[in-house]
Amino acid sequence: MKKFVDTPFLPTEVEIEQITDNSAKITAFPFESGYAITLAHPLRRLLMSSSVGYAPIAVKIEGAKHEFDSIRGMLEDIALFMINLKNLRFKIKGDQEQIEVSYTFNESRDIKGSDLENDDLEVVNGDAHLATINSDCSLTFSVIVQKGIGYVPSEDIRDMIENIRDMIEKEYIPMDAFFTPVKKVTYDIEKMLVEDNPNYEKVVFTVTTDGQISPIDAFKESISIMYSQMSVFNKIFDLSEVKMVENTTEESAVDLKDLIVKIADLNLSARSFNSLDKAGIKYIGDLALMSEVEVRSIKNLGKKSLEEISEKFSELGFPIDGTLDETIASALRKKLEQLKS
Known about the structure:
By secondary structure, the chain is α+β, with helices and mostly antiparallel strands. It is built from 10 helices and 14 strands.
């Protein structure tokens, strides 16, 4: 017999099945209909985007100035060597977030990931191939391994290297950094019977990592991150901590003439200005109409340049997020067309 309820049913059971060292299933149940996927989808996103890992971010190779160079006596050119290096999965053994390690290899041999292990660094996939050298080769290189999350392109790494020039010499070649230690996450929602109701659900996660972290620890981290992100809403229970915002329209806050100021008048650095100029962006309004994703995709616009532009726009009172009122946006588009015609 069905009955009225006044609170959602709370799931009570969790099961863990260790499939391999780097793969596990986590099952939770029973959820009321619709609740399983509500939790499963953001958890999957957090597992794939926010799990902490380690990656090489820059390499310095004696005798090589750039990634299109080559080394006498090494089978691989520098580009392939860097690809092989990126495929190695590192773990810093101590509490450091960044370390620099140096190596020298002589004589004819195949160099594997395990050859890079030392007191400070572990290579999870030690059998992975790095390079093949002959008896004429003396391969000397240094690698910077960094702790982080997600993916950071080499263009942004280059900006970071410029910001810490006192730590890293100019000969370092920046690399795309793939920090994420989680290789794959899937989830299935299955129906289950609770008492006489067949519409309850269980969610089954399958998590696979690269060995830098166990799948269970990766899952724990994602849960912790979800809790910490949602904790901001705890302030709602104490309104004294909540910033109350007046309901003002965009039209009262934005003056159209401020948006047709030329980019050249912002006194940006040459690097930032050239990136915008080459993309055909001449006025502040061009950027104000773009979403943050569109701005980030501008060619050769690195992290440092984006921060500079965002700071300038903040001073002017315009966020780079494409959220202009549609009436203002429409008028702005027409005005920009007139100016550029």
